[in-house]
Amino acid sequence: MCKSRWMQKIAGAALTVSLLAGCGAEPAADTEETPVISVIESGSQVSIVNSYDNTEELIKRFPVINPTPVDTPLEEAIQNRLLTGFENWNRGYDAWKAWGDILYTPESMYNVHGVRMTLEEYQQSQNMGLKAADIQMGNFNNMIICDDWCAIRYDITSTNRETEETSEGSVMEFVQFKDYGDELGVRVVEGWAGTKGADFDMMRSFLTEEEAAAQDEAMEELEAYVVPEMDNLEEKYPVLYPTAVSDEKGEQIKSAVLSDFEMWNQGSESWADWADSYYSSDLQYHVKDDVLTLDEYKEAVCASAEETEVERLYFNNLLISGDWAALHYQVLNTDLATRERTTNNVMQFLHFEVNGDDVKVTECWTK
Question: Rounded CA gap, 246 and 234, in Å?
């Protein structure tokens, strides 16, 4: 019998992030290698970092536990912007907001827990979160950068300012950048932080009536989406924001991921048989606070499938670099008792071992 505490975590609709993207730690001392500039924000002077020449220093402060290649000038600039953003967050909200005038454009959008926000709405939500909790950053577990996209996974510690209770958590984000060719250089086009969760309605409160209506319409279109019948899996499960796959190993990983999508949609029993060839026998599957074995994961999926059908639709992102893949995809959930249909987005980071034609997932983190 499947343990009930796993069941809702495996279904796509239940995979959530409980904290706003972002975190704060004690500011590091200024050094010659980290030039700072002073700006006026909220009526007071704050210091922020803005240099493309300090990546080597910043990555020592914010190390990437599972590094992957950073090859092109654009990818190097994105890496710097991510590290610089974390440094400026550590200087407090006013510094982070001032940095936002550099990192974002007035047209930048950010999707927080399933709610698409303007820059101003995003900043308001961040400010509200920081008034309720002191959010401290841990490590970058992943920083996967492909073309003009990045996927990051990092740890946070949140302390409730009223109760002083502390909890651990993690955040996943997918962000698109663009080099605007001006003095500000590489800036955010749009970002996605976490997946739709219990705070969805609260996050929607930041939207205007027109924005909320537009989002409702987009969700209705997603609920009506039909996966096409065809043999070509790349066309059957398209990537909305495609990025390059640079080598043969990457193509093997991509093929395995697409096959997993196809087998998942064939039903839980077919997928459970397939899972033995897709996942390593010593798989570690991380979901919220649990780490499941392969047998436990399969058991949880099959038990959940008795109540909810979860169909995988298409990818927002499929970033592959080195031995890693970062997935952001859409699912359609159907309650088998009521036939109610709901949509959600899922984020995953997967580590692969590739030996010849043998491609297997050894570890996976899912939200």
Answer: 16
What's the predicted TM-score (pTM) here?
A: 0.89
Of the candidates 27, 64, 26, 57, the residue with the CA atom closest to the CA atom of residue 154: 64
Backbone angles phi, psi at 147, to 5 degrees: 55, -120
Contact between residue 91 and residue 27 where contact means Cβ atoms under 8 Å apart: yes
3-state secondary structure of 90: coil
The answer to whether 136 and 87 have CB atoms below 8 angstroms apart is: no
Distance of CA 46 to the CA centre of its chain: 29
Rg, the chain, Cα only: 21
Name the DSSP letter for residue 70: -
> What span, in angstroms and rounded, lies between the C-alpha atoms of 97 and 172?
21
Residues 6 or more apart whose CB falls under 8 angstroms from that of 137 comprise 23, 24, 25, 62, 86, 89, 90, 154, 155, 156
pLDDT in tens, 86-122: 898 878 788 888 999 999 999 999 999 999 999 999 9
Count helices and strands in the chain by DSSP H and E runs? 11, 14
Separation between Cα atoms, residue 179 and residue 189, nearest integer Å: 10
Residue 113: partners with Cβ closer than 8 Å, 6 or more residues away? 16, 17, 193, 194, 195, 196, 197, 199, 200, 203
291 burial via Cβ count (<10 Å: 0-12, 13-18, 19+):
middle
Using CA atoms, how far apart are residues 345 and 330, in angstroms rounded to an integer?
4
